[in-house]
Every structure is written in C-alpha cells, then in structure tokens.
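Handout, tutorial session.
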Amino acid sequence: MNCFYHQVTLANTRCKTCARPLCPACDHRVKGFTYCQDCIVAGVEGMNTSSSARPHSELKSPGIAAFLSLIPGLGSAYNGLIIKALVHFAVVVGLWELNDLFDSLLFGWAGFAFYVYSIFNAFQDAKRLNAGADLSGEEAHLKRLLQEKTNVWGTGLIGIGALAILRWVLPYSFVTKLWPLLLIGLGVYLLQMYRREPKTKITNQLSPEYRTEIPPVISFDPVARDYTQAETRRLDAR
C-alpha cells in the first residue's frame, strides 16, 4: 500500500478522519492522532467558519424580517439597523404623502418600488447577518450621509408633514390654491436673501499698499552735468 500523496512511497499509517494511507512524510500528528494535510486544512476552515457565524440565539429569521417590513422600516429595526429603518420609513411614507398631495402616480409608483425594495433588503440583511457579515460599516456610512444633509432631510420632512396636516384641516380646493402662494413666498424670500448679502465694489484703482512709485525715465544730476560740460570744453581746447 503506497502513500496517497506520494505514490512511489510505502504507507505506514492512515488518516484518522478519511483513512487515507500516509507515508512518514505525510504523517501529521495532532494530540497523538494521525491526520492528512487535507483534513487538517478542512478542520481549520471549519473552525474559522464556526467562529464567524452567529450563535443560534442571535440568528435572524429572514422570513420574519420580510414580514415585519410590511410596516416600512420595521424589518430593518428587527435586524438591528436603526438608521436604515428610519430612512426606509421616511422615504416610503414621504413618497406616498407626496402622491396624495400632488395626485401624481409618479410618487406613488416610486414609493411602491422603494417599499418592495425595503422588504427584500431586510430579507437579505438577515441572511447576511446569519452568515457573519458585519453591517455596522454600512450603518455608519448611512448615518454620516444623513448628518451631512440634515437640513435638507429635516426641511423636506417638515414641509411634507405640514402640507399633509393642512390638507386634513382645510378644504382640498384651498390646499391646491396654496401652491402658487408658497412659490411666490419662496421667491420673495430668496430675493430678500440676495439683497441682504453684502456686495463688494469692483474698482480699477489699487489700494495704497500695492502702489509703487514709478521712477523717472531721465534724471537730472547737477554733478554729472558739470562733469560733462568740463569734459566737453577740455576736448574742444585740444
């Protein structure tokens, strides 16, 4: 019987796991037992996989995550992704509210598409968490994006909510007539902001510290003039 890895060498033992014949060069001992190199590598990879996987008590059910996502954002909250849950809720509800306010199918279909995406995303995130993936980096990146555009998100959500409340309280005809007034008010506000900005005067004159004195092209030195006249008289005398 020859070695499994060295076909020309006689084997003197077998692997404890796969029973492959092994020669003395392939006889790897672990705690007194013989193992081949393939079984050792498989054991190490299995240890790494088991250490990265979540304990059974912390496993997330993809089905439950998808079911809870029927309420926008709740599935991501089940997965422990609070920032993503808030974003999903705000986007879906905001688009549906815009659909009601503008009576536009564009916002309605956009909200429905993002709603379906949020369900699928919660399902996939649960599977990734069970496989040992770390989603904290994605959560931190999303939080940083929200912090950079806080004024935009805040203003948009407050505006949508205020208009929705006005539609509940006031007649529909009044709300539809309110849009031109809001646009005029926004235009007046922007014009006032523009006029309040300090305007810098642009002139062609340089400030005194940057002005330089221009030296005269011809300078009249009395000493040099006398010397020139004396030399002229001396040469004429010759």
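The second record follows below. Compare its token runs with those of the first.
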Amino acid sequence: MSGGLREGLVLSGVYAYRVSCSHFGKNQVEYLFILYGYFLYCDGTMTEHDSNKLAEIAQKVRRDVIRMQRLGTGVASAMSVVDILVCLYFEVLSPSASGEKERDHFLLSKGHGVAALYATLAARGIIDSSLLDHFLEDGSPLTGHPARGSVPGIEVSTGSLGHGLPIAVGLAWAAKLAGRTSRVFVLHGDGELQEGSVWEGAALASRLGLDNLVAMVDVNGLQGYGRVDELTPLDRFADKWRSFGWETIEIDGHDHARIVDTLKACPFVAGKPSVILARTVKGKGVKAMEDQLGWHYFSVPADRIEPFLEELS
C-alpha cells in the first residue's frame, strides 16, 4: 500500500471514528492518536564535548528566530528550546528528513515554538535556509505551527496541545513490533502537561515497555496566561512521571554537554520509557524577553530586531 493511500485510509478512519463515537468522551479519541502514529509508520556520552561549536550553532539559530519573528507570535517559546533542538539534531538524531525506515523520529508537540525547529533544520542542512526569510508569509511552507509534509523534518502536524506524546507512543510501538531500532523523541512544554492526553499516552508507553521513546519537557515555568506553578506545581513533575512508570532525569536545558550526555544515555533503564525535564528560561538569550510572559504573544518589532541581534552576537 502506498504511503499516501495508507494515510488517506487512516485519516478517513479518524473522521468516521469521531463521528460514530463522539458521545463516548475523550479517552477513545486519544487512543486514536496512538493508533494513527502506529498505522501511519508501521510499514513505511559525547566522545568530545564540543560545547563551543554547539553554542555557536545555538546562537545562530536564535538570531534566525529573531529575524523570522517579525511576523507572528511564539518567539520566547522558541528561544527556550533552541539548545535542546541543536543538541538533538547535531549530536543525537539520525536525521528525520531521511527516508530510511531505521531513522529516528522527532515530534515537536509544543507547536507554537516551531520557529526554533525550522531554524535548526536549516542550520543542519535539512531545509534551505532561504525559506526562513518567508516564515508566516502567504504561500510559505513555514507555517506558524508544524504541518506534516510542509518541509522535510516535519513528521506530524501539531499545535493542538497534548497530542505529541500519544502519536509518539504509536510510532515507538510500531518500531518495536517491526523489530526496528528507530527511536522516537517528543518535546513538550511544561504547561502542556496539564492536558490529560499526555498522561493517557504516558500510561500506555509504560505498559508497553517502550524504551525507544524519549519525552523531553521544556520546563520554562511560563504558559499562555501565567506561571505554570499557579496551576501545576513544578516541583511535583518528576514524581508524577515516575508514578507513571517512566525513568526520569532533571537537567539544565541550556547546558549543551549535559543535554547531549543525557540524550545519549537513553534509555536510562531497559524496558522503560525515558523522560528528560529540562529546566530552561523562556526567551533565553535576550534579556528583555527572558522570563517575561508578554513575549509569549509579541512579535519582534522592526526597531528591536537589530538591538536583539547585537545582543546575540
């Protein structure tokens, strides 16, 4: 069966399922996301810590994000995950743009930070860097949230929060059943963990023993309307993941050496999924943005682009 036909059948099933089962509530719908990941893909310690090089790449990515965000929102959300993405794509992943079945998969569940992913893909040579100049323009493939197939490296459409992990569970399970060595990495925001679908996926991943699945959480402490702590105490995150059967490690999400070492150590325990709670700073790199809620929504004004770029030089 061709990939397009297979996906078409799956999406048709999604629609039919939702229409026929809408009165049953949310649980079935979330398992549908898990099955979507499975059917869509089932056939089809640094030796040397070059932290300076990774820091240079991360700085370039942040500068690109600033240039891109003259339109749209999400600049601070993108800035906080840059170091994680750079370490992942330059030191850990077999590139997601590859068509090989054994390749690794990456899903950005916090889709509003997609500018950082586009800029990282460009820095890695997976997409043409000239595309960054057209972020959010009419007709551009670089949309404000990831759209599957828009450019190489974008595996699933995200932005409706909480769906990344259930899809990642499907991908990881498919790889296990097919005997493939593929790993699946998914990046969530900390506020996003208030979505129940995350924990439905987490429970099933543990039950299935998906040690090829790695969840990463951008713990920057801010969400759309305030502090994450106001709704979900951050000091309980690690215990909650452990209670769901995940091996859990907390790290500095801007320490390149620590990020790479931790990612390369996965799975932390054989037979268990791994989660990395990365403590970060929203808006990292630009003092006026750092830990400021407003920049969750602001675009970068034209008269502030050059001062911000200078700060990142």
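Points raised in discussion: The chain has one domain: 46-311.
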